[in-house]
Q: What sequence folds into this?
């Protein structure tokens, strides 16, 4: 699952610290999805008519799928689709493989063409009457649209709700609904689905995004409670920093400056290069009328990140 962008970082230098490995970046439950779709692939084998040529094609695609050789699956499926453009099995294998290839890419520029191909083939499969795995197809379509960006969030929601109505529920279906509703600013619906996801599978990531959503709704007490649960559940450095930044903002809004200071000091204990932490510490001391300490913290922020917008404004305006 992809997290919403941190809305509270001024510094580019601190945003990339401690991120999880890129293979996990885009999906919270990718392994679960692979397993679920592999089961689906076995269902395809049962549905297809049996003759020598089709059996060979099915077994070849099944083997390539088990090897996660998505590029080769795309090549083989394109050969099949040249002679049978609406072969539902080839369209589904092709669409799923394009999706996974897109997820594995690092930049949006590289991802988008593969996601577009995934959508093209899966929506063509959707035109076939009584094709197999319709719920799974709508589930992958929903995730593909979500990863294309916020302007596709409505389609992500429509397809994910459809997959649930069709009887297919992925391990992260509710998480994606929560994220997509959050992108549209429908925070009430977002909270509803994040809480459903937490009931099924509590995780630090879910606590974090739910805390972010409560913060956006200005329900600060709930945000605080949820973020503290996140900190108790996580050992991930990036997640800890995001949760503590939000807690710091909550405490600053309440004028509980000592509590806020503690959060930023905790961040610096795991990331000495967090320019934003120094910036917010300076803001705390400024509120406490300690100008000398405030300016010292802002200078530390600029030493780490000379382009830090907030620190430059405080020191030179």
A:
């Amino acid at each position: 699952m992809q997290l919403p962008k941190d809305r509270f970082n001024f510094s580019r230098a601190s945003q990339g610290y401690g991120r999880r490995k890129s293979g996990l970046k885009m999906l919270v439950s990718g392994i679960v999805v692979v397993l679920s779709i592999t089961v689906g692939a076995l269902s395809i084998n049962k549905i297809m008519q049996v003759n020598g040529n089709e059996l060979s094609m099915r077994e070849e695609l099944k083997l390539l799928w088990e090897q996660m050789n998505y590029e080769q699956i795309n090549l083989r499926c394109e050969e099949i689709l040249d002679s049978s453009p609406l072969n539902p099995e080839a369209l589904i294998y092709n669409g799923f493989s394009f999706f996974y290839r897109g997820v594995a890419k690092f930049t949006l520029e590289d991802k988008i063409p593969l996601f577009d191909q995934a959508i093209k083939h899966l929506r063509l499969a959707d035109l076939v009457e009584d094709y197999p795995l319709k719920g799974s197809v709508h589930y992958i379509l929903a995730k593909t649209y979500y990863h294309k960006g916020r302007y596709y969030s409505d389609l992500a929601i429509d397809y994910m709700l459809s997959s649930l109505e069709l009887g297919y529920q992925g391990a992260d279906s509710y998480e994606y609904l929560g994220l997509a509703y959050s992108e549209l600013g429908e925070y009430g619906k977002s909270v509803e689905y994040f809480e459903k996801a937490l009931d099924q599978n509590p995780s630090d990531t879910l606590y974090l995004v739910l805390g972010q959503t409560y913060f956006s709704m200005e329900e600060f007490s709930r945000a605080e409670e949820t973020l503290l649960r996140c900190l108790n559940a996580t050992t991930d450095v990036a997640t800890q920093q995001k949760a503590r930044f939000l807690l710091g903002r909550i405490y600053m809004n309440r004028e509980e400056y000592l509590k806020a200071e503690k959060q930023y000091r905790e961040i610096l204990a795991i990331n000495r290069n967090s320019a934003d932490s120094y910036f917010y510490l300076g803001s705390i001391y400024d509120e406490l009328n300690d100008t000398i300490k405030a300016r010292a913290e802002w200078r530390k922020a600029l030493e780490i990140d000379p382009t830090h917008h907030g620190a430059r404004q405080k020191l030179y305006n």
In short: Residues 2-52 have pLDDT under 50 and may be disordered.
